[in-house]
Request: fold
Amino acid sequence: MSSVDPANDPSAAPEPSGWQPELEELRLRHEQSVALGGAEAVARHHAQGRLTIRERIGGLVDEGSFQEVGRLTEQGRYEHGKLSGVTPAPYVMGLAAVAGRPVAVGGEDFTIRGGTSWSGDRKKGGQGGFVEDLAHQYRIPLVNLIDGAGGSVTSIQKRGHSVFPGVHGFEQSVRLMGEVPVVCAVLGTAAGGPAGRAILSHWSVMVKGTSQVFAAGPPVVERSLGQKITKEELGGAAIAVDLAGTIDQVVDTEQECFALIRRYLGYMPQNVWELPPMERNGDPVDRCEDGLRDIVPRNRRRPYDMRRIVRWIADRDSVMELQPGFGKAVITSLARMNGRVVGIVANNPMVYGGAIDVKGARKQTHFVELCDCFHIPIIFLVDVPGFMVGRDAEAAATLREGMRSVYVSLQATVPMYTVVIRKCYGMAGMGATDKNGLDLKIAWPSAEWGSLPIEGGVAAAFRKEIAAAPDPKAREAEIEAKLRASASPFATAEAFGVEEIIDPRETRPYLCRFIDAAQSRLATTVGPKPKYGVRP
Amino acid sequence: MAMIEVTSVVTGSVWKIEASIGQRLEPGESIMILESMKMEIPVIVEDGGTLRELRVAEGVAVTEGQVVAVIEE
Reply:
């Protein structure tokens, strides 16, 4: 008796049990969902220089890593009870990987009804929906590839009633902002809900010429205000990125957009319960750039290239500047120091001598909050004469927006390092210090500080004395020179009012040493940051 | 050849004009120096070109985004 019972033979195929029709239907449904809005709609979309949602996801994530969820979400058409065709839901999403780490990714399919919202029993994404639940439940980053105009008034017709705002609300989108990195790319015309969704992100990007973003598009603007305006004039990158800072960055092509998203995510932890990934590139910690000694001109009125300082100090090729075209008085960059992710806030002496204006303050506020949220230590490269002055600055609420950035800095608990390159004055200078932490302030020999710069201060404080002098101009200069002599940074260092003055070449090794040492503290203080109080 | 309008990044005044009409400027060279917030801010030709037009004179006030010169690339 050598025969094996077929039921116990693992290599034997079971008897056919008749599921072939269902499996065939499944194959047909998958095939139709991959076809999106059909060949004609896809060709029209391509002709506008835009990729389909499936091409976008393919271009963004690690090759072959996209595991779609909800491939059967669609409107089926039936003839005599048998499926004859389907219209897929205009949203494609699922689980994927970027640089080997899982992410939740989704986006509207413009080739089906222009990507307008679609309601099944459960939403796939857009505002809330499965893709946001996935990011929240699994604590993984969310990437939204936005290309839709949101709701359509035609839904009233379909439902027989109008929907109250927030039925498909932003509550999950808001929750995610304190939990996982959220990146939004605007890849078409985003108005209404999708435009709002783009703003609820840690970082956003759009494509020059093919994407626009606004609360409402040209037809609504014309009816409401009588303004005739094109969608590019209303919400193209010139307005949304450079002027308003509504979106953080602009790129020339969708491919560049995907590369930049991958780069940004490379600096981010998966969530606020973890630290960002370390990545050493062999750049020696003790690399001391000679150029740092001479970059600051002796003439205090001459500016210099702060971006070069940032590049010289950080790990080679590790700097990613955020919002480069907006709020140019402040330069904000993600970078690495000995492989560890840091945020660098640097004042730009080329723009208003580095004075903080409304836009610069807004940019700094967002960046400091971002770093604090994801446990990214902050380096301040300080050359700030103060808040911007003048009628225009006051009318724009520079003081309020500036104090908001100071408030956010003083509430942050992530380790911060203050490096005074040249000027560090007043309230803006205070916002560049680590008052809740070690408060380590190092300075270059070119540093100077005080409650306000000597030039402006002398004229006010010694007004009578200057006016009474036979040569008021000469007297003012004399007083300035005398005060400047006592304002030497060495005098403050003697009193331990600043912890160290260093040869500028040593900036990199000095900072790397302390950032490495802060890792235990960082690793033991992960988790969401509690928010309390009211921002000014 | 493309004409490029050069704008001021700051509000301030024109302190010193350094280049003259017809002059060839290398990338990074400055056309003029503005004074703003007690700082000397150079107006730099990023990609180089020939100075064709000066829209401002020394001593005049300029606003952020104002065209101060035109260069031919």
About this structure: Chain B touches chain A through ten residues (CB under 8 Å). The CA atoms of residues 53 and 70 of chain B lie 5 Å apart.
